[in-house]
Structure formats: structure tokens, C-alpha cells
Amino acid sequence: MNAATAEPSTDVTAHRPRRLSTTDLALVASFTALIAVCSYAAAIPVGGAGVPITLQTFAVLLTGLVLGPWRALLAVGLYFLIGLAGLPVFAEHSSGASAFTGASAGYLYSFALAAVVAGALAQYVLPRQRTRAVFLFIAALVATVVNHLGGIVGLRIVLDLSWHKAASIDAAYWVGDIVKAAVAAIVAAEVHRAFPALLARRG
Amino acid sequence: MTPITDSWATRLPVGAKMLTLIALSITTVALHGVRSAAALLGFVLVLAVSTRVPARTLLRTLRGIVLFAVVVAALQWWWIGPARALESLLDLTTLALLGVLLTATTPVGDMLEAFVRWAGPMRRFGVDPERVGLVISMAVEAIPGTITLARETRDAARTRGLERSPRALLTPFVIRVVARAHEKGAALQARGIGD
Amino acid sequence: MAEVVLEAAEVRAPDDRVILHPISLRLTEHRIGIIGPNGSGKSTLARLVNGLVTPSSGRVLVDGVDVARNGAAVRRRVGFCFTDPSAQVVMPTCIEDVELSLRKRIKDRVRRREAASQILARYGLADRADVSVHALSGGQRQLLALAGVLATDPDLLVADEPTTLLDLRNTRLVADTLFGLEQQLILLTHDLDLVRRCDRVLLVEDGRIAFDGPAEVAVARYEATV
After folding, report:
1. How far is A10 from chain C (nearest CA, A)?
2. Tell me, what DSSP letter sits at residue A90?
3. Which of B103, B117, B125, C107 sits most deeply, having the most CB atoms within 10 A of its CB?
4. Crossing angle of the two packed helices C94-102 and C109-122, in degrees rounded to 10
5. What is the arithmetic mean of pLDDT over C126-148?
6. How does pLDDT run across B70-103, given as a tens digit for each residue?
7. Confidence (pTM)
8. Is the ipTM here above 0.90?
9. Considering the domain A21-194 in this protein, what is its CATH number?
10. Chain A residue with minimal CA distance to B176?
11. Which residues of B touch C92 (CB under 8 A)?
12. For chain C, which domains are there?
């Protein structure tokens, strides 16, 4: 079915270390688009009770788990760029610089770090466990903690709150984010089963 | 999407506007006290009016943050006191306005071009501005296609009565996204682009 | 015409499963068809020709250039058209996608745009230059993909089932375009009517060349096995 595609650096001419192949570029662009589309989409009902979850965080965690730290960083960074440029890809169809200067900006900025953390854990720490959702869930949880810490710092700075107060505002988002981390882990495990070469050659 | 105004601000280079935005945002957050917050908001409002951003756009932005800002202000009134609550309200409004001003006075294309331009001097870090431009375009182009994939996956899940299951909705969708990315990568390579 | 030579080229999957058994071929005809059931390995064979896949053993040479050693040079001479046009088109508007192919050859922006416009006109897409690629019909998108591939003037075009996803009218349109090309064409297809227009046809089954010869005979052989 899918033949092994040529590794990009079989060329005698290409020597730059860690050079991104065209497939890497395509993956980065595709996941940027995925984050954008997920951020724009309405909340989807999950499970028997139909609890609605928004998908932005899910997409960011997924990007990290699937692409590994470097490509995920690029994908999230690119997402920032196109949102900053004015495409309505931020939460609640917003766009532009206001997402980067509001009270929840901390969460947005730390998406980048969270994706990198999820990716690094998935790639370096869990090479053989990547197709098991349980391990990816742990990676996603750690990334979620990072995201929330970033969000809290943001709240503190913009609203001049104490750690305690900022953390209590943040607490409201925890349950939803745990669900998103679980879903991201389940999906990422399936993706790695279908595409075992995604994180294989690096590290 | 916010409409683009035509004024002195639209003609400013993107970099200058961004630096100004950053500087003013930091100032807003750093200065304490209701008076300075009000002064800053007034200043930004004057700026906004001079750039001829339509009132509708401003109001829409404000409406977006008003609910949130009111909740936050209420919390802060309760936790800290009325002065801080008012200051937060003013600050959040100022920050939101600053954001809108940048976006409303800069067409998307200009912004993206600016990003590619700024990638130029980053060559020494191994950044290839051509590839930056390419990947930006690819991401933009991929959005409609990704929406179609999402819709198809959702329809397929619906026909099987599985629309409540995140697995049925999201897994096939993401797998197709990844498969398509591989195809695009191969297509690029076949065309000798980014090789 | 370009000359494609396979010297005992074999392709194995990462788990050592054989996708293509060692094949030796010399392809010089103007129009070569490749047919065979799904999973037979014909797509892999096609991708050997432009270096998207490198042989696990043996060699593949295009005009004397080894694809494993200099894939980029090979891909400058060999164009490749995929089954799904949506996967190939990379830029938001039609003209930008053609311009992308021209970037290396024409540095000047204005001249590049002109050249791209002319190319679009050649494929009947002149009025869609600034239109989003997603607004095109399947056939138009495939033509756009072809335009992008042919813009770099390759010596040889490999087309992997280019009409499989298209309706009859668009199939005819794309097929006529392909068979009207001066370049050498290697066409993979399930459409036996198209294959009959080829000078030489290879039937691929289970990773081996089961038949190599005139179109009619190859088609008869294939139909007999189904």
C-alpha cells in the first residue's frame, strides 16, 4: 500500500543536520491548519452525557504527541503567526493581536511550550510505548500542567493577582482539559499505529 | 474578520506597529493605579479614532471581552477592592483595543509578507525565508481542505450513529490529515520544491 | 525521449517484506502503460522512476543518473502526477501554485506571473488564475496539478492513476492532455481504454512484471486473470 518514501537526505548534496524534509513541512502546515480548524469549530459533545469540549487545546496537545518537539513547535508557532496576521483562528473566532494581549494570553503563549513538552516526552521517553494511549496520556497531562502554569502566570501579570487567586480562576478549566488530554492521547496512539515512521527516525 | 481601514496607520510599516503594540501593552500592564489606566485607555481611544477603525469593529471587540472583564472585575472587587477592579476593567479594554487596532490596520497579506521579510536576517540561524513563505502558504491553503475532511468524517460518523464518540469523530479525521500531509510532502518532493 | 533503466531494482518494506522483486527494465518508448491490481507494487515501481522511493538493492537510472545518489537531479527531469489532485496542489490560488513551480527558473516576479498566466491559459484555466484551488472541479484541479508539474518542462512524466477520481468528461480531458504531450509518458491506470493508447504496457502482479509487451495483449492477459 504505502511504499517507503525516500528519506530526504539520501542526496549526496544535502548535508545540513536536522534539515526539514518536504514531508516535515507538509506535516507542520497540516497541523497548523488542524489547530486552526479545531479552534474555530464548535464544541463537540463527548461521551454519554454529551459534555461539550472545545478543541483548541486538544489539537495543540495532539500536535505535540504526533509531531515531536521540533515540528510541533513550528506548527504552533505558525498557528500564532497566521492568527496574528488576522485569520480568525483563535478561541471564539477571534483573531489578531488581541489574543496575545488579553488576560488569557498566558494560555496561548504556553501552548508552544506545552506542545514541545508533549512532543519531547512522546519522542524521547516513550519510543516503544507510543502506540499505547496510557503513556501518551501521561505525556499530555504533563503538557497540560505546563499550559496551566503558563496561563496562571499570564493571569497574574495582566490582572495583578496573587498566585492563589490566579490558580483558583485556573482551576475551572482543569476537568475539561483532562478530558481533552485523554482524547488527544487516544487519537495520537492510533495515529502512531498507522504511521510508525512519524517519530521513528529522530533521536 | 476585521475590516481594514485606510488611514495613516495602514501605511505604517508592520514592524513599527507591532513594536508600538508591544510597548503599549507592557506599559498598560506595568503601570498601576486607576488614573494611569484611564489615561492610557483614553490615549488608545484617541489613537483608535484617528485610525478610522469603524465604531462597529471597536464595539464588537469590546463586547467580546466585556463579559469576561466584568466577571474578573467582580472577582477582584470581592478579593481586593473596587479600585483594583476598575483598573483591571480599564486595562483589559485597553489591551483588547490595542490588539484590534493592529489587526484592523494591517491586511492579512501584509502581515504574512512582513513575517517572511523578517525571516530574511534569520538566515544565519538556518532559517530559509523561502521555506517560511512556503509553509505559511501551505498552512493557509490547507485550512479549507481540512474543514472538508472534518465534515466528511463527521458525516460518516453520523451515518453510523457514532457522533458522540470522539474516537469515531476525531481519529479518522486526524489520520486522514496525516495521510494527506504525507501525500503533499511527496508531491512537493516530486516537483523539486524544498528539495 | 528519456531513458529509464532498472538494474535488478528491488524494494523492501522496513520489516523486510518484499514489495518489488528484483526487476530489470529499459524504458524508452513514448507512451508506456502500467496496469495491475491494487497492491501489486505498480505505484512503488512508478515512484522508483522519480526517486520518491529508492531501491533496497539494485539501481535505477534515468538518463544515466542514479536516483539513489542524486534524486533531486532526477526530479528535475521527471515530473510526477498523483491520483488525488487535492494532495498535490499546495498554494491557495491557481496562479500561485504554478508560480511555485517556476520559482527556481524565473527569479523576476513580474515575468514569473506572466509565464504562469500563459501556462494556465494552455490548460484552459486562464479565467481561474486568482480563484481558490478549492473552488475548482476535480478535473480542473487535476489539470492545475498537471500544469504545475509540466511548468518545469520535464523530459518524462509519470502519472499515477491520474483519472481514477474523475468523471468521464474530466477523464477524457485529462487523458487527451496527457496523450497530447511531447514528453515521454509513463501512465499507471485502471482505465483499460486509456492503456490501449500506449506503445508498450507492463502488467504488474505481486511485485513482479507478469507481462511486458503490446497494449492489446497485456490488457487481454489482465482481463483473463480477473
Report:
1. 7
2. B
3. B103
4. 120
5. 89
6. 777 787 788 778 888 888 888 888 888 888 888 8
7. 0.80
8. no
9. 1.10.1760.20
10. A191
11. 137, 140-141
12. 30-50+71-225 (3.40.50.300)
